Amino acid sequence: MPETYPSIEELIPHRGPMCLLRRVLAMGEREIVAEAVLAPESALLGAGSQAWSVEIVAQAAAAFIGWTYRERGWRSGRLIKVARWKMEPFPLSSGEPLRVYSVLDTMSETGLFRFDGYLEDSSARRLAGGQLTILSS
Asked: CATH number for the domain including 120?
C-alpha cells in the first residue's frame, strides 16, 4: 500500500462539520488507521461526546471501503449495526489528535462489512470501541 493516501474527501462522502476524520495515517489489506481532530467549536464536544465515537470509527471503516473497494464503486454505506460498543468515561476534547482504528473482520460479496474498531487519545488511552456492521453501496 502507498505511503501517502488520498484525501479523506476522496474516500468518503462526508463534508464540512460532519467529516470527522482529518487524514489516513496507515492502511493495510484489512485495516486502516486514521486521525480525527475535533474543532473547538464542534457541537460534538462536552457531555455525551463519547457517543460520537461510533461515527468517527464508522467513517474510518468507510474510508477503508472507499479505498480498498473503489473499483466496485463502493464509496458510501450505511451503518446498520453496532455491537459490544464500550465507551470509557473520558470526554472527547478539542484540538487533540485522536487515533482511529478499523480492522476488517468479515465481508460479503454483496457489500456487507463487519469491522472491529476503536478510538484512542494521544496518550494511547482507549476511549471507545466495539464492532460495526456497514452495508456499502
From this structure: 3.10.129.10
